[in-house]
Amino acid sequence: MSNNYWLKRWQNNDIGFHEQEVNPFLDRYFTNLNVKHNGRVFVPLCGKTNDIAWLLEQQFKVVGSELSEDAIIQLFDSLALIATVTTYGALKLYQAHNLAIWVGDIFALTTTLVGVVDAIYDRGALVALPLALRGKYTAHLTKITHNAPQLLICCVYDQSQRDGTPYSVSAQEVFDHYHRVYTLELIKCQRIKNGIKGVEPANALVWLLHKNNC
Ligand SMILES: C[S@@+](CC[C@H](N)C(=O)[O-])C[C@H]1O[C@@H](n2cnc3c(N)ncnc32)[C@H](O)[C@@H]1O
């Protein structure tokens, strides 16, 4: 899956993944991460999610990563924020108040560029990537955030019934990617009404990933 695939989807407004409401699992479970007041939350592959507005309302700082500049222009518009835009090589940084979004390929981000991260919120990021990229993504994500704790939302269904995003990411796969650096806690498994693009059954799995002490 190429970056062009996503850029085209944004150009064509083909964004069925975008939720009109704040994700209920964020509202319900983010507090379990015990992120400090005014902590900084990294939202990888963020699109223009309304979850960013929720995080800002809770007084968190937010740093995001997104390929599509169209998405980020729409995000700042929806928040009624005027961005200061700075170019860093292949990346652009959109900033206003407590919000900073890196526009470009997440794999071009470094620990220094991202800065301090107290927690990660992954909804629609790991599951957006094909298996061949997911190992690279999880290794990169943990590297650039120093294994910051995560709230991770995945979906699980029979991948042989369809190809494409959102991909099914099993509990075993989450364990394989992350058990070296995190203690994994599966906090919710919930049936997805009407399945994933016609494939049923499908379940949403919600994980808390706590940083290992060692
Ligand atoms: C399934 S959408 C999820 C968006 C958002 N997390 C949400 O919940 O609405 C995946 C997003 O990742 C972005 N994306 C895909 N590959 C990327 C990459 N390599 N670097 C940064 N963003 C990427 C896409 O443009 C798209 O907006």
Give an overview in words.
By secondary structure, this protein is of the alpha/beta class. The chain has one domain (3-11, 21-211): 3-Layer(aba) Sandwich (Rossmann fold), CATH 3.40.50. The chain is 28% helix and 27% strand. The chain is built from seven helices and nine strands; from the N terminus they run ααβαβαβββαβαβαββ. The chain has a nine-stranded mixed sheet, with helices on both faces. The N and C termini lie far apart (35 Å). The model has no long low-confidence stretch (mean pLDDT 97). The structure holds S-adenosylmethionine.
Largest sheet: 9 strands, mixed
- Give the distinct bound molecules: S-adenosylmethionine
Write the CATH fold name: Rossmann fold
What is the count of distinct domains? 1
Radius of gyration, taken over Cα atoms and rounded to an integer in Å = 16 Å
According to DSSP, the number of beta strands is 9
- In CATH terms, what is the architecture? 3-Layer(aba) Sandwich
Q: Given this structure, which CATH class is correct?
A: Alpha Beta
EC number: 2.1.1.67
GO biological process, one term: methylation
Subcellular location: Cytoplasm
Protein name: Thiopurine S-methyltransferase
SSE diagram, text form:
Blueprint: H1 3-11, H2 24-29, E1 40-43, H3 51-57, E2 61-66, H4 69-78, E3 84-88, E4 91-96, E5 99-103, H5 111-114, E6 119-123, H6 131-145, E7 150-156, H7 171-178, E8 182-191, E9 203-211
Parallel strand pairs: 1-2, 1-6, 2-5, 6-7
Antiparallel strand pairs: 3-4, 4-5, 7-9, 8-9
Bound molecules: S-adenosylmethionine (SAM).
S-adenosylmethionine is lined by residues 3, 6, 17-18, 45-47, 49, 65-68, 71, 105-107, 123-125, 128, 165.
Binding site for S-adenosyl-L-methionine: 10, 45, 66, 123
Protein name: Thiopurine S-methyltransferase
Subcellular location: Cytoplasm
